[in-house]
């Protein structure tokens, strides 16, 4: 049975969906059998990130209602991983069956990665309760950190191991809350520091995960480093010329 990891944030807009899509893409590239699930039933958009049609026929919503078998809800992405999207119009769904469904779906997979609803709603709780482990995602500002602290408390109350914290959209600005301070507040290790990057916005517009769209960018390197951490492997060292080309590209902007 594979690892079921819920990616959780205290608020929307911190880049949780982008992280899930890219972890799924890179872990599949590493040869793992990966399923990503959009369990943000009231704000679904993982399918939009991954170029599924807006009117995709089957969804997690239908699966939760028992209208279709699990096999019919799964879409294959061209990068090699599977997706179960949520409906963007059918938002009044009780997610209580998610845990039962994932027991079946995780049997032949290495990873199931859940894109949780933000906050401490019943949707977020269902994702946490359905997972084996939780990754917290925040941006380096106090409101996001306070909100994700609530998510941490929710996960702890359900006895779920916390892998650590991903700080997303970092800009290295003086007023950002630094990793050490975030670790002190959340009492968890920072496992990735993902920079704000134009290539992420471009990749979302192109509906291709940035690890495939711009694999040598600094943001992709950090996402891949996180994937290697989940695999228990040492990440490959970035190639010198790749980093130099990106630095040169910054001066052309």
**Name of the CATH architecture:** 3-Layer(aba) Sandwich
**CATH class assignment:** Alpha Beta
Distance between the termini: 47 Å
Q: Which structural class matches the secondary elements?
A: alpha/beta
Principal-axes shape call: globular
What amount of the residues lies in strands?
15-25%
Unreliable spans:
243-253
Mind describing the biggest β-sheet? 8 strands, mixed
**CATH-assigned homologous superfamily:** P-loop containing nucleotide triphosphate hydrolases
* Proportion of residues in helical segments: 40-55%
The average pLDDT is 90
- Let me know the number of strands: 8
The succession of helices and strands, N to C, reads EHEHHHEEHEHEHEHEHHHH
Task: Give the count of helical stretches.
Answer: 12
Count of discrete domains: 1
Roughly how many Å is the radius of gyration?
Answer: 17 Å
Can you list the strand order of the major beta sheet? 3-4-2-5-1-6-7-8
CATH-assigned fold name: Rossmann fold
Entry keywords:
253 residues, alpha/beta, Rossmann fold, 12 helices
Give a written overview of the molecule.
This protein is an alpha/beta fold. It has one domain: Rossmann fold (3-Layer(aba) Sandwich), CATH 3.40.50. An eight-stranded mixed β-sheet has the order 3-4-2-5-1-6-7-8, sandwiched between helices. Strand 7, helix 8 and strand 8 form a beta-alpha-beta unit. The longest helix has 16 residues. The termini are far apart. The relative contact order is 0.18.
């Amino acid at each position: 049975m594979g690892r079921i990891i819920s990616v959780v944030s205290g608020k929307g807009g911190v880049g949780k969906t982008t992280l899930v899509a890219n972890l799924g893409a890179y872990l599949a590239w590493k040869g793992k059998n990966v399923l990503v699930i959009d369990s943000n039933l009231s704000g679904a958009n993982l399918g939009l990130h991954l170029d599924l049609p807006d009117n995709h026929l089957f969804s997690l919503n239908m699966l939760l209602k028992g209208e279709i078998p699990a096999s019919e809800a799964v879409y294959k992405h061209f990068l090699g991983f599977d997706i179960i999207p949520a409906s963007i119009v059918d938002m009044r769904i009780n997610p209580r069956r998610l845990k039962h469904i994932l027991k079946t779906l995780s049997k032949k997979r290495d990873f199931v990665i859940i894109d949780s609803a933000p906050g401490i709603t019943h949707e977020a709780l269902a994702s946490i309760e359905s997972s084996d482990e939780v990754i917290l995602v925040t941006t380096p500002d106090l409101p996001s950190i306070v909100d994700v602290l609530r998510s941490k408390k929710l996960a702890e109350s359900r006895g779920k191991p916390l892998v650590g914290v991903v700080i997303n959209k970092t800009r290295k600005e003086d007023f950002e809350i630094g990793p050490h301070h975030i670790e002190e507040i959340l009492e968890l290790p920072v496992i990735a520091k993902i920079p704000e990057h134009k290539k992420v916005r471009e990749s979302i517009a192109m509906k291709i995960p940035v690890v495939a769209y711009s694999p040598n960018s600094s943001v992709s390197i950090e996402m891949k480093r996180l994937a290697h951490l989940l695999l228990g492997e040492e990440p490959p060292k970035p190639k010198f010329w790749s980093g130099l080309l990106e630095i040169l590209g910054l001066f052309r902007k």
